[in-house]
């Protein structure tokens, strides 16, 4: 188990390096520099001297290879560069924001787990029942819905009409501010979890070893607890890990909708203002986060199901 | 091959979106961009404006009909690009193996490490907003799964006797891939593409909502929702109808894809609904 853990953890490094290179390449082909784009709105006449000065300051007039070398050396020292706009280190900007994002992601996943898994479980134990039908229709709808639209509707109903919850913002960081964005973000993983849990439990229920357990006189409750829950768990953990990527992606939209001060809204704002170092840094941190989660999922997975390690 | 109720519901919804997009110039009562009249802004739904009017006094129903054109274009073109990239890489990697296989696998793994909406957002940041950039961004985003499926299907077909017979007859590699292997992996690829259309439409809506996709005044369902946050208190219909259009069309693609998958692969059948 230790060797497996070590190997999987070390595998993160080459992937991050390649992603970092990919990000650098993508953003080096941006037509026009940041300095030039400052004047692109046409409100001020472009000042060639000022453009030259800004390019000099950010080192944008150096050859591509030299810039790449600087980027890699900085990165190796965990330096993500300096924001074009605020002149602050990118890592500080991300530091200020990442806690809010973590809070939102964890709350959304917790909501999805606490509601989705029991729903899928109950649906599978009573196939064809009203609960089963409603859950599955709900799941298909949840997967087809634009999440930010659902967020808008919930904002309208619970914040603007009923006045139960704040409509947007972080507030003083209270739980009330977290509810609407977290529920909105949790809907898609919830739907997927309900669906996979149901499918997984149904598969296990039809397996031979369940029939054996029944025939040797094991009680229903015990069968469910010992065999069904354990085997369905593998599927649930996998779904959770796979879902995390799209959750992080969707979080960008949801953070923007609810004016949530996380790294997602930082990313969108930086894209809009062409603050490339912040865009690059934020994407890199998001990818790193995603890889860490995936590795953790793999490890949990191997701990639950010993068959995996051999692969 | 039996197709269930869900498949037909999905096909019906998809047909509705296609008809709305094609017939928009004839059945839409107004012009989606030019018929803006501030005297008529934020009117609730009535006999003239079926879905009400938006902040600029444009007919929401008209804009939704035209929006179908953008969503369909995005869905179809992006999935076409996705499938071509995914199938080409996956099939050749599975067939040739060796260093090429390792390379393709490596690239696929890197792509899977980047959440797809984040990747699309990065590409949009580079290319700038607009429909062509959207098509490129979403076309480059989701081919990894297609590639994996094409690769593993090719691997299992490679050892079958009819492929080996073709090799014995001296057929070239490309000829074997395109005439012997491709037709046999089209099923799962088609399912992936159909399901991918749904996620492409959702991604387009999200990017346009963020102001990075289709730019106003063009009627994309996502960009129609950009103003909705400010208007929702006064004019909730501005938020409700475009979202409903996205929801129903994505539901259509998803049910269609699920139905196709179930009929192609009975083992994957998700017991109704």
Automatic annotation (TrEMBL), chain A:
Short name of one Pfam family for this protein?
BPD_transp_1
- Described purpose of this protein according to its UniProt entry: Part of the ABC transporter complex GsiABCD involved in glutathione import. Probably responsible for the translocation of the substrate across the membrane.
Mode of membrane association: Multi-pass membrane protein
Every ABC transmembrane type-1 domain range: 98-301
Mention one GO biological process in which this protein takes part, according to its record.
transmembrane transport
**What sections of the sequence does the record tag as coiled-coil?**
none
Q: Which family does it belong to?
A: Belongs to the binding-protein-dependent transport system permease family.
Name of the protein described by the UniProt record = Glutathione transport system permease protein GsiC
Q: Which InterPro entries match?
A: BPD_transp_1_N (IPR045621), MetI-like (IPR000515), MetI-like_sf (IPR035906)
Q: Where in the cell?
A: Cell membrane
Q: Report if keyword Cell membrane is assigned.
A: yes
- Keywords assigned: Cell membrane, Membrane, Transmembrane, Transmembrane helix, Transport
The portions of this protein that span the membrane are 12-40, 98-125, 137-158, 178-194, 232-258, 278-304
In the UniProt record, which is one GO cellular component term?
A: plasma membrane
**Organism superkingdom:** Bacteria
Q: Does the keyword Membrane apply?
A: yes
UniProtKB/TrEMBL annotation, chain B:
Q: How does it sit in the membrane?
A: Multi-pass membrane protein
Give the main localization category: membrane
Compartments in which it is found: Cell membrane
Q: Which protein are we looking at?
A: Binding-protein-dependent transport systems inner membrane component
Q: Which Pfam families match?
A: BPD_transp_1
Instruction: Identify the species of origin.
Output: Sinorhizobium medicae (strain WSM419) (Ensifer medicae)
Q: Which domain of life is it from?
A: Bacteria
- Which Gene Ontology cellular-component terms appear in the entry? plasma membrane
Domain ABC transmembrane type-1 residue range list: 68-257
């Amino acid at each position: 188990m230790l060797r497996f853990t070590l190997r999987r953890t070390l595998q993160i490094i080459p992937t991050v390096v390649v992603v970092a290179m990919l990000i650098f390449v993508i953003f080096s082909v941006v037509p026009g520099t940041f300095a030039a784009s400052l004047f692109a709105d046409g409100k001020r006449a472009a000042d060639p001297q000022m453009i030259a000065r800004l390019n000099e300051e950010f080192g944008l007039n150096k050859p591509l290879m030299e810039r790449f070398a600087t980027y890699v050396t900085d990165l190796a020292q965990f330096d993500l560069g300096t924001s074009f706009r605020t002149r602050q280190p990118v890592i500080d900007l991300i530091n200020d924001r990442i806690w809010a994002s973590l809070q939102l992601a964890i709350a959304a996943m917790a909501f999805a787990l606490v509601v989705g898994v029991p729903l899928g479980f109950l649906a599978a134990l009573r196939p064809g029942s009203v609960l089963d039908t409603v859950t599955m229709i709900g799941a298909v709808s949840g997967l087809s819905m634009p999440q930010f639209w659902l967020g808008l509707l919930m904002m309208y109903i619970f914040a603007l009409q009923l006045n139960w919850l704040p409509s947007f913002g972080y507030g003083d960081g209270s739980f009330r501010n977290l509810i609407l964005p977290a529920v909105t973000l949790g809907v898609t993983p919830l739907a997927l979890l309900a669906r996979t849990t149901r499918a997984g439990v149904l598969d296990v229920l039809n397996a031979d070893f369940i029939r054996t357990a029944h025939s040797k006189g094991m009680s229903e409750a015990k069968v469910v607890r010992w065999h069904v829950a354990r085997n369905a768990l593998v599927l649930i953990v996998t779904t959770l890990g796979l879902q995390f990527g799209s959750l992080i992606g969707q979080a960008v939209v949801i953070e923007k909708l609810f004016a949530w001060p996380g790294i997602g809204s930082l990313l969108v704002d930086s894209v809009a203002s062409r603050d490339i170092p912040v865009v690059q840094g934020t994407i890199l941190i998001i990818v790193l986060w995603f890889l860490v989660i995936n590795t953790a999922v793999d490890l949990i997975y191997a701990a639950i199901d010993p068959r995996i390690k051999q692969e | 091959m039996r197709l269930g109720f869900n498949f037909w519901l999905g096909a019906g919804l998809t047909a509705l979106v296609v008809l709305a997009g094609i017939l928009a110039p004839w059945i839409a009562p107004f012009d989606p961009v030019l018929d803006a009249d501030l005297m008529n802004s934020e009117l609730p739904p009535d006999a003239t404006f079926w879905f009400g009017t938006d902040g600029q006094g444009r007919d929401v129903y008209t804009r939704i009909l035209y929006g179908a054109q953008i969503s369909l274009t995005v869905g179809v073109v992006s999935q076409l690009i996705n499938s071509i990239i995914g199938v080409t890489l996956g099939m050749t990697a599975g067939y040739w193996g060796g260093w090429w296989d390792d390379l393709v696998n490596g690239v696929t793994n890197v792509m899977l490490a980047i959440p797809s909406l984040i990747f699309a957002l990065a590409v949009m940041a580079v290319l700038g907003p607009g429909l062509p950039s959207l098509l490129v961004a979403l076309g480059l985003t989701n081919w990894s799964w297609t590639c994996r499926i094409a690769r593993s299907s090719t691997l299992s077909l490679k050892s079958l006797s009819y492929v080996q017979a073709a090799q014995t007859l001296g057929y070239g590699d490309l000829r074997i891939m395109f005439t012997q292997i491709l037709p046999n992996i089209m099923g799962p690829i088609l399912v992936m593409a159909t399901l991918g259309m749904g996620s492409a439409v959702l991604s387009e809506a999200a990017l346009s909502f963020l102001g990075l996709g289709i730019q106003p005044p063009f009627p994309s369902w996502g960009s129609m929702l950009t103003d909705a946050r400010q208007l929702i208190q006064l004019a909730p219909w501005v938020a409700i109808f475009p979202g409903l259009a996205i929801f129903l069309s994505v539901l259509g693609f998803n049910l269609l894809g699920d139905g196709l998958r179930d009929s192609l692969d009975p083992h994957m059948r998700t017991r109704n609904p």
